[in-house]
Write a structure and sequence with these properties.
This protein is mainly α. It has five helices and no strands. The longest helix is centred in the N-terminal third of the chain and has 28 residues.
Length: about 150
């Protein structure tokens, strides 16, 4: 029993450390924002001239989006995008399930882009505008659409 408690205690410490790193990286690197606001206080949203993903929805774009998702999103949303990771224990709100139709802010490309770029403080979602270029965010959007069932 003592061995199990030690292992469990070490696992909890590792998870807390990972959560703290994620939060610090989000705060230091990209800031947090409220829905409809970017972290600089301006109005959020995708570039005004765009109404949909400007990148072609193909295997190359999806593959690159998956690589970026793996680096930046898996910790909270999980490998399969369902949001059922251990991070849910450390956040105010559970990470969103990216595979279902229940999208709080809407599932249009430009809305997804905005959420990734600008973050959503109320949902513990950090902004990634300083970590990812617009093109890379669009690639992640493509991969998220793939997770949701869309196929090229």
């Amino acid at each position: 029993m003592q061995g199990e408690a030690d292992v469990r205690g070490e696992r909890i410490k590792d998870l807390l450390a990972a959560g703290c790193l994620l939060l610090v990286a989000g705060w230091a690197g990209s800031g947090w924002s409220e829905p409809g606001e970017d972290s600089s206080g301006g109005s959020g949203g995708a570039p005004e001239s765009l109404t949909s993903n400007p990148l072609e929805f193909n295997l190359s774009t999806i593959k690159r989006g998956k690589q970026l998702y793996t680096v930046h999103c898996v910790r909270c949303h999980g490998v399969d995008g369902r949001g059922d990771t251990e991070m849910r224990e450390f956040l105010k709100t559970a990470p969103a399930d990216l595979t279902d139709d229940a999208w709080i802010y809407g599932n249009a490309d430009v809305v997804i882009f905005s959420v990734i770029r600008d973050g959503r403080t109320a949902r513990d979602m950090p902004a990634f505008r300083t970590e990812l270029t617009d093109e890379r965010i669009w690639q992640v959007v493509s991969y998220m659409e793939y997770l949701g069932g869309r196929r090229p």
